[in-house]
Amino acid sequence: MITLKRLDQQDARLLIEGAAAKAREIGIPMCIAITDESGNLIAFERMDGGKISSVIVSQDKAYTAAAARKATHEYNAACVPGNLVFGIHTSQGGRLCVVGGGLPVVVDGEVVGGIGLSSGSPQQDMDCAQAGIDHFNSDRA
Amino acid sequence: MITLKRLDQQDARLLIEGAAAKAREIGIPMCIAITDESGNLIAFERMDGGKISSVIVSQDKAYTAAAARKATHEYNAACVPGNLVFGIHTSQGGRLCVVGGGLPVVVDGEVVGGIGLSSGSPQQDMDCAQAGIDHFNSDRA
Amino acid sequence: MITLKRLDQQDARLLIEGAAAKAREIGIPMCIAITDESGNLIAFERMDGGKISSVIVSQDKAYTAAAARKATHEYNAACVPGNLVFGIHTSQGGRLCVVGGGLPVVVDGEVVGGIGLSSGSPQQDMDCAQAGIDHFNSDRA
Amino acid sequence: MITLKRLDQQDARLLIEGAAAKAREIGIPMCIAITDESGNLIAFERMDGGKISSVIVSQDKAYTAAAARKATHEYNAACVPGNLVFGIHTSQGGRLCVVGGGLPVVVDGEVVGGIGLSSGSPQQDMDCAQAGIDHFNSDRA
C-alpha cells in the first residue's frame, strides 16, 4: 500500500488567495485552478473578468503540472520540433498543456497538487501561479 | 444588443457557502460547481472527501441547469423511454446531465447562473443545491 | 452581479452581411460564424460553395476570438515553438483556434461577441471578418 | 493536507491473480483493470482471448468503482428510467460505467482503488472481480 499526501480545501484556498492577490496587483483578472496530486480539481475561481477560454486552460495547466509533476513552462521549453518531447501537447485531446502558467505544488519533496493560471500572458500566469505557491509556503512555514 | 446579468464571484461564494453548510449538516462532503448563465465555470469546491467522479458530474449539472434553464431533475422526469425528450442525456458527449442535483439560479425572472452538486444521492444533491440558492436569495433579500 | 452586453440576432445579421459582401467581392464562398461573448453560436451561414471543413473551423475561430478576447491571428503570431504560448492551439481538443480569420467584436471597449470566417486563405478569411466588423460598426455609427 | 492510502503494484498483482484464477476456472478469458483510488490505471492484463472492446470497458468499470466509491452493479440497479440517478451512465463521455463488473477496493473502511472485469456476462465479470478482492483480502489477513 502506498501512503501519500494531497492538498485539502484549506490548502487550496491559500493557493488561490496568493495567486488572486498577485493578479489584482498586476490588474489582470485570472482563472485559477487547483488540483490534487492526480490532477483532479479541488477548487477553482474565475475572478470577475477572467477569460472564458481560460476556464479550461487553467484546469489543464494545473492537471498537467500535478499529473506530470512538471511546470508547464518546462514542457514548453522542451516541446519544440526536432526534440523528442515534441508532440506531447496533443496528448489526451490537448489536456496535457505546455503553455506556461502551471506549477506543481511540492511539500517535503512530494508533489501534492497543482496550480494553473490563465487569462494573462504566460509570464503573468506564471508569476501569479508562483505567488500562489509562495503564499501557501509562507503560511506553512 | 442584449443586456444580461451574470453571477459574479461574490454571488458564487454565497451559493457555495449555503450548499456546503447543508452538506456538512447531512454529513456528505460534496463537489459544488457554480457556472454563469452560459454554463461556464465561475467557482468550484471539492469539499474534503468529495468524490472524484463528482468533479465532472457537478460541473455538468451546473452547466445543464444554466445553459438549458432547467433543473436537471426536471429533465430526469421527462427523460424516459417513449417520451420525446428521451435521449437528451447523451447530448454533448453526456455533458447534458439529467441526474438530479443541478438548479438554475434565477434573479428577477432571469437565469443568471447554475449550481450543481454531486457526491450524495440525487435527493441529497438537490437539497444541497437548493440550500445554496436559499442562502444566496436570503443574502439578497 | 455582473451586467454585460451581448450581440443580438440583428447585430449578427449585420456582421454576416458585411463579411458575405466581401466574400462575394473576392469570389470566395465562405463559412461565417457569429458567437456571443462567451463563444456560443448566435448565427451561421455557409454561403453556397463554402467548404465543409470550414463549418467547424469558422465556429472555432469565432469561439476563440470571443472567449479569449483576442484575434486568432494574434494567437498565431505568438504560437511558435519556443514561445511560452506555444501549445495553446491544441487546447480544448483543438477548439482554441490560432488560424487567422477570427476577430472579437468590441463595443465601447467590451467584447460582445466573435466572428469567424473560413474557406479562403487565412488573409482572405481575416479580410472578410474585418469587413463584417466594419459593416457592423458603420451601421451603429 | 490529506493523507490517504493507495494500492501499490504488489496489491494490484494480487487483485489480478485472484480475478484471473476465477476467470480460468469458469473458462472465460478476461480483461482485468486495476486503478488507484482516483481511478487512474495501475495495472492491466488482457488474458489471451480477452475481448478487444473490454480493454476500455474494464478500465471504465474500475475507474467508476474507485472514483465514485460504488460497485458498478449498484449504479446499474439505480440507473433506471424514472429514477433520479438515471443518466449517470452517459457522464464523462460514457466513462462512468454502470455495467456490472466494477468493485471498489476497500481497506480499513477507505477506498484505495478499483477493480474492473470485462469479457464475460456481467455476473461472470462481477464474480471474477469479487474473486480478485477475496484473494487480495486473504493475503492481507
Written description of the protein model:
Chains A, B, C, D: InterPro entries: GlcG_carb_metab_protein, PduO/GlcC-like, PduO/GlcC-like_sf. Chains A, B, C, D: This is DNA polymerase III subunit delta. Chains A, B, C, D: Pfam families: HbpS-like (PF03928). Four copies of one chain form a homotetramer. The first copy, chain A, is of the alpha+beta class and 141 residues long. Chain A has helices at residues 9-26, 54-67, 72-78, 122-140, and strands at 2-6, 31-36, 41-46, 102-107, 110-118. Chain A has a four-stranded antiparallel sheet with strand order 3-2-5-4. The A-B interface holds A 8-9, 38, 40-48, 52, 55 and B 8-9, 38, 40-48, 52, 55.
Short overview:
Chains A, B, C, D: It comes from Marinobacter psychrophilus. Four copies of one chain form a homotetramer. With 141 residues, chain A is α+β, with helices and mostly antiparallel strands.
